[in-house]
């Protein structure tokens, strides 16, 4: 795991491989309590679906069932909690979000993860964990996590603890 920085409000993670991104997803999946909304932001091929695969594994939902919802905009995966995975890439306009049924999942117990969350307009709740992913080289990705309310804040705090645990111990040997 390669956590770059963490503060009370945000956390940065450098991924060097698909496996790294999936591993971060598993850490997130294990930390979920139900009712969280996670918005994924990032260009084509940055690894949003890869991250969702890890989240599903962390929830003990069969990871192979998670694929990009190409025709259906929302897929459901049943693990320790219900996971709704939406991909809004093909949404023509934010006005069309209402027709996807996304709001049905915002019930306080389902975990909702939304790819291309910037297409959701006002349909996403104000309280969400935002994960912004950017390319930095062929296999390197920077994932920037921030919380926008109390539920996502609690999740982020858990992830900060997990990040602390997974940091390499400082080298204190003196010789
Ligand atoms: N560190 C990395 N993390 C995730 N994916 C990586 C990484 N390095 C390379 N890749 C490659 O990037 C691609 C990510 O695909 P993925 O479908 O997860 O992206 P996406 O952001 O969901 O794309 P889309 O916007 O089309 O939905 C895969 O081909 C994967 O092999
Ligand atoms: Mg995708």
Short description:
This protein is of the alpha/beta class and 175 residues long. It is 24% helix and 26% strand.
Please tag this protein with its features:
175 residues, alpha/beta, Rossmann fold, eight-stranded mixed sheet, 3 helices, 24% helix, globular, disordered C terminus, binds adenosine-5'-triphosphate, binds magnesium ion
Any chance you could write out the topology, listing elements then pairs?
Elements: E1 3-6, E2 10-15, H1 18-31, E3 37-41, H2 48-58, E4 74-78, E5 82-87, E6 111-115, E7 129-135, E8 141-147, H3 150-166
Parallel strand pairs: 3-6, 3-7, 5-6
Antiparallel strand pairs: 1-2, 2-8, 4-5, 7-8
Helix pairs in contact: 1-2
Number of domains: 1
User: How many E-type strands?
Assistant: 8
Output the structural class: alpha/beta
Radius of gyration: 16 Å
- Order of neighbouring strands in the sheet with most strands: 1-2-8-7-3-6-5-4
Hetero groups = adenosine-5'-triphosphate, magnesium ion
Strand content: 25-35%
Class, according to the CATH hierarchy?
Alpha Beta
The general outline is globular
Name of the CATH homologous superfamily:
P-loop containing nucleotide triphosphate hydrolases
Biggest beta-sheet profile: 8 strands, mixed
Order of helices and strands: EEHEHEEEEEH
CATH topology: Rossmann fold
Distance between the termini: 27 Å
CATH architecture: 3-Layer(aba) Sandwich
Notes on the structure:
The chain is of the alpha/beta class. It has one domain: Rossmann fold, CATH 3.40.50.300. The protein is 24% helix and 26% strand. The protein has helices at 18-31, 48-58, 150-166; strands at residues 3-6, 10-15, 37-41, 74-78, 82-87, 111-115, 129-135, 141-147. Helix 1 crosses helix 2. The site of adenosine-5'-triphosphate has 17 residues, from helix 1 and helix 2.
